[in-house]
Amino acid sequence: MIKITIDQKTVSVPRGTTILEAAEKAGIDIPTLCHMKLHDMNIENKPGGCRICVVEVNGRRNLTPSCCTEVEEGMMINTHSMRVINARRTVLELILSDHPAECLTCAKSGDCELQRMAHRLGIREIHCKGEQSAYRIDNSPAIIRDPDKCIMCRRCEMMCNEVQTVGVLSAVHRGFNSVVSPAFEKDLMHSECTFCGQCLAVCPTGALTEVDETTSVVRAISDREKVVVVQTAPAVRAALGEEFGYQAGTVVTGKMVAALRRLGFNYVFDTDFAADLTIMEEGTELLQRLNAFLKGDKSVKLPILTSCCPAWVKFFEHQFPELIDIPSTARSPQQMFGSIAKTYLAEKLGVDRKNMIVVSIMPCVAKKYERGRDEFYVDGNPDVDIVLTTRELAHLIKLCNIDLTTLPEEDFDEPLGQSTGAGVLFGTTGGVIEAAVRTAYEIQTGKALPRINFEELRGMEGFRKAIVDFDGLELNIGIAHGLGNARKLLEDIEQGKSHFHAIEIMSCPGGCIGGGGQPYHHGNADILMKRQHALYTEDELKVIRKSHENPDILKLYAEFLGKPLSEKSHKLLHTNYFNRKAE
Amino acid sequence: MTKTQLSEPAEILVKSICARYKNDEHELINILHELQHELGHLPAELQSAVAHELHIPVSKIYGVVSFYSFFTMLPKGKYQISVCLGTACYVRGGELVLEEFKRRLNIKTGETTKDGVFSLSCIRCVGACGLAPVVTIGEKVYGRVSPQQVRRIIDEYLMLEEG
């Protein structure tokens, strides 16, 4: 242990601890800007670039960046001397001198770490005037890049390269001209970007934001000709409350439904219903492939990979096109919902699909890209018209003068609103495969599950494996979240080293609870744990917890689809993938 | 950006140079050096080919190529004009000379004229400060260059071209 003194407080910390971490232990909150650490998830960004976290160390001539300086025995550290505060302010003023003063109209206003830092350090005037960056704004269907607002913290680059291994964003050029950009200054839309949104989930400023579609929703609702239907993804209910002052991990399902109804949606439905439907299709596909494989059919490929996550789909289309016949052909719950809403529901309501607007509330920005894929259009009309993130929904609720906290708890509408505990689990890593196992087990064995919770599939480790006993048949299950972990699994499959029967992959660390469209965690991984816990609790509270027991799903098959993997199911609920390597 | 395929000889060259460095990403700068020496410049499709060989994202390679002024993505002209902007040359008007070259050739620093005859770059000190401001074209050194002389220097090479 190493003993040091910080602001007259003495602390003992293990060798290798940084001054910043030691200060945290001593209850001293040194301001940081580029640094970000997601504890327990092995994600850290410390380029030591911004110099906001400098401190004064006795006996050292220069100020020291605390985020990347390790403690030494007997160090005497001052985190708030006049010299330190002056240096911090100068550094911030220099950053601000090349930052557009657009706070009033910036999409990140109120949630911006740079703005907060300026406030915290009491910046009242920017003494340095100099050249201003003037980059082109990069508009994609999901993410907007405004490099003028980039402060080169390089968090996005770290997420894109180290965590997701997508490798689209990199620091390019040098000196004043350096900026984070795709290769050759291409647009994100013409790069291998998966739109996972983890870059914007960690961006401290408004340099990376989602495409804001709240106004389109207000316009759609105001149009009396249109029937406007909304679906809400499982992870949204576990995070929306945070935008209204609730503790992380508070589930606000009922209040969210009430708010959506007050916003004027004609029908408030649940993506969890579509998640149950996904399980019926994907679970049946799994069993079909598994049983054929066990019978020795060499044409059948295992493992089967989940396909709910649009960023993951785009990732393997770009990076592993030779494996595109391995993932399940099942569409994501968002797209299944859209497809069923504009056929089954539209028929029931006697509405033409062109007069129905399907809005999704998603924890995700990739869903904005997914809804626009060509294969999800029928005669020029999309299955899903508009996608809002959890953050956008919070803005919309506030825009429409609704106080979420005072609303009663209400239920989803019929017939696409009923869901099971299994559907809820889709929002967390391990959840899709647990839901699939619950259903596949009972179908395969013809027996009731001896237990409903599969603890062995749960957790936060980036890559997990488990063996599930299907009444004598051992099923090898793999789970990965974060595309870097997914890449390792895919490389094993490519090299024939994988022995899994089924693998669940979610692009975002933590799964959808950590999605790019969720309220900003600002580097606090604890929030993700609480959201995950909230979903497991929501599952426990459900009366029905297995997808194949959802009465409305059974009715949908009886009235409309026939059975899982039927011709109609294939047409409406399945898809195919494309080799995007050449792009 | 227009998508062009890398020519077959260039592709073979990329493969052989990368292989000589055992496709080790830590040798990226050496690999890029050799490729530029052989081909004169490092176009986007060449960088993509290197990315493929080394199994690293092309954005990372572009990051390196765009960082070092030595690397260029544009083909160099037949005559490479370098204007020195080292301290001595700078204070004696090197920048005015550079501006005049830019104006007369109608290109920016780092670019090549459309006919491929001239390319223009600025350099930092060639060790001939007594001759400041200095311009080099290929191996030839011009000392005490004034903006008024620029036209004559350009004409010298244009005449060579016309033969």
In short:
Chain A is built from 19 helices and 22 strands.
Low-confidence stretches of chain B: none
Give Rg of chain B in angstroms: 18 Å
CATH-scheme architecture of the largest domain in chain B? 3-Layer(aba) Sandwich
The CATH superfamily of the largest domain in chain A bears the name Fe-only Hydrogenase (Larger Subunit), Chain L, domain 3
How many structural domains does the protein architecture of chain B include? Answer: 2
Can you walk me through this structure?
The complex is a heterodimer of chains A (583) and B (163). Chain A is of the alpha/beta class and 583 residues long. Chain A contains 19 helices and 22 strands. In chain A, 50% of the residues are buried. Chain A has a five-stranded mixed beta sheet with strand order 2-1-7-5-6, with helices on both faces. The model of chain A has no long low-confidence stretch (mean pLDDT 95). By secondary structure, chain B is an alpha+beta fold. Chain B contains seven helices and four strands. Chain B has a four-stranded mixed beta sheet with strand order 2-1-3-4, covered by helices on one side. In chain B, a hairpin with a 2-residue loop joins strand 3 and strand 4. In chain B, helix 1 runs antiparallel to helix 2, helix 1 crosses helix 3 and helix 3 packs across helix 4. The longest helix of chain B is centred in the first third of the chain and has 13 residues. Chain B is elongated, with a radius of gyration of 18 Å. The two termini of chain B are 36 Å apart. At the A-B interface, strand 10 of A face helix 4 of B.
Q: What is the strand and helix layout of this fold?
A:
The complex is a heterodimer of chains A (583) and B (163).
Chain A: E1 2-6, E2 9-13, H1 19-25, E3 36-38, E4 43-45, E5 54-57, E6 64-65, E7 76-78, H2 82-97, H3 113-120, E8 138-139, E9 143-145, H4 155-163, E10 170-172, E11 179-181, H5 198-202, E12 208-210, H6 214-222, E13 227-232, H7 234-237, H8 253-263, E14 267-270, H9 271-294, E15 304-305, H10 310-319, H11 333-349, E16 356-362, H12 366-371, E17 377-378, E18 381-382, E19 386-389, H13 390-399, H14 421-424, H15 431-445, E20 463-470, E21 473-481, H16 483-494, E22 502-506, H17 526-541, H18 551-561, H19 567-573
Parallel strand pairs in A: 1-7, 13-14, 13-16, 15-22, 16-19, 21-22
Antiparallel strand pairs in A: 1-2, 3-4, 5-6, 5-7, 8-9, 9-12, 10-11, 17-18, 20-21
Helix pairs in contact in A: 9-11, 9-15
Chain B: H1 8-20, H2 28-39, H3 44-54, H4 58-67, E1 79-84, H5 87-91, H6 94-105, E2 118-123, E3 135-137, E4 140-142, H7 150-162
Parallel strand pairs in B: 1-2
Antiparallel strand pairs in B: 1-3, 3-4
